[in-house]
Specification:
ribose-5-phosphate isomerase; isomerase; alpha/beta; ribose-5-phosphate isomerase activity; disordered N terminus; 7 helices
């Protein structure tokens, strides 16, 4: 994918034009430019006075930047953000976005976040960035959940990308938990791997640790896992599992940016 509509994205201000009214791009867009287009479109749902769930990841980062910019310009006022990760918390603070939490605001007006996969029924995989528990808590408390993706995230079924479906687990006996997770989906050719980080101690890779002090076991499927609600319940019944990255029946709107423009799907 290459360079975006140069006349469109040369400045953030020009992104304010409604994308729906734009003619199709004459040149190919990079994946990051597609993410930015989707993110800016999602921020059009934000109104002054809202309490917002602020997502985590490369796509959500563009939305948080845009919200901060509109607050500085005075085009948004009295917005409060509830971040889904420490990283987003730091980003929002740097942009001057007032922050709170679910204890003070148990019901949110709107959440904006990206996704790692979106299936044909608007079910999601999230958490490849490691923030799935906080994301699910925040986005489960909102009236509207707007998901922003580029078209590479669309899959025919959950797990269809062949990439990770994350499960957050407690560190205690994680190998035991990982084996039980693998055994649950043995018929689907499941592989379970502990996620590691870049840091090494004595040349040994170290586990990735979430904001909650837990580990992540990534599941990889060779086949469709079938009924997602049954799969979800089976995972959550395992002692040692904290949460999984399937976000089922949660998205109310999905915004997809592709080379031919932006599409919006609503529940």
């Amino acid at each position: 994918m290459a360079v975006a509509y140069k006349q469109l994205i040369s400045t953030a201000e020009k992104m304010e034009t409604s994308l729906a009214s734009l003619s199709p791009p004459s040149v190919i867009l990079t994946q990051d430019e597609l993410k930015k287009i989707a993110a800016y479109k999602a921020v059009e749902f934000v109104e002054s006075g809202m309490v917002l769930g602020l997502g985590t990841g490369s796509t959500a980062c563009h939305a948080v930047d845009r919200i901060g910019e509109l607050l500085r310009q005075g085009k948004l006022k009295n917005v409060i953000g509830v971040p889904t990760s420490k990283k987003t918390h730091e980003q929002a603070l740097s942009l001057g976005i007032p922050l709170s939490d679910l204890d003070s605001h148990p019901v949110l007006d709107l959440a904006i976040d990206g996704a790692d996969e979106v299936d044909t029924e608007m079910n999601l995989v999230k958490g490849r960035g490691g923030s799935l528990l906080r994301e699910k808590m925040v986005e489960g408390a909102c009236k509207k959940f707007v998901v922003i993706v580029d078209e590479s995230k669309l899959v025919p079924y959950i797990g269809g990308s062949g990439l990770a479906m994350p499960v957050e687990v407690v560190p205690f006996c994680w190998k035991f938990t990982a084996k039980r997770l693998k055994d649950l989906f043995e018929d689907c050719g499941c592989v379970a791997k502990l996620r590691t980080c870049c840091e090494k101690i004595n040349k040994k890779e170290q586990p990735f640790v979430t904001d909650n002090g837990n580990y992540i076991v990534d599941l990889y499927f060779k086949k469709d896992i079938g009924d997602l609600k049954i799969a979800s319940d089976s995972i959550l019944r395992l002692a040692g599992v904290v949460e999984h990255g399937m976000f089922l029946d949660m998205a109310t709107t999905v915004i997809v940016a592709g080379e031919l423009g932006v599409t919006i799907k609503n529940k």
